[in-house]
Amino acid sequence: MFYEMEKSSKKKEELISIIVSLMDEEGLKNVTIKDICKATNISIGAFYHYFQSKDSIVDEMFTLMDEFFLVNQEAILQHPTAAEQIIDFVNHFGIYVEKWGYYANLLIMRSHITKYSHNKKRRLYGILEEIILKGINDGEFKVKVNTEELIVMIFVIMRGYLLEWVNREHNYPVRDNMVKQATYLLKSLTI
Predict the structure, then answer these.
(1) What is the DSSP string of 121-147?
(2) Structural domains of the chain ordered from first start
(3) 112 versus 100: which is more confidently predicted?
(4) Which DSSP category does 79 fall into?
(5) Which one of 93, 110, 151, 175 has the fewest CB atoms closer than 10 angstroms to its CB?
């Protein structure tokens, strides 16, 4: 199954990329909707077509993350084992957070992490759950694995390194460290 991002989502992603760059330079609190409209070359009315408010930009970043995983799901699932698929899932998470940059991730960590950090309804979690369940059904784990617990462990690894990146600031190999730690975990659980 191939998933392609809708045209409106692509436009929203383009706008958010510009907004994130602007926030990196100025900081969210210092950026006005007028500044955003000028930088993105859209009208104020168009801004409100895509976003409910300036604060809703972060909400849209979570939506775009789910879209990113839907677009990349087929590539992630190409790997022959659940462990390799999980590692590539973690790698894609790292690609996504590096794409948005340091400031955008700092903003997400500070303002919305509790709201979205473990929402089982998000497609992001569904993809990981499918991978783990298939690995369990195929007998790939050498110990009894609770799907929900493993999902939590993987997201703790990813959020932990994201937080470490926020604490250390810009030059930190966040994706590499996420992948390395997830690999250690999975090597201890798989055959």
Answers:
(1) TSHHHHHHHHHHHHHHHTT-BSS---H
(2) 57-189 (1.10.357)
(3) 100
(4) S
(5) 110
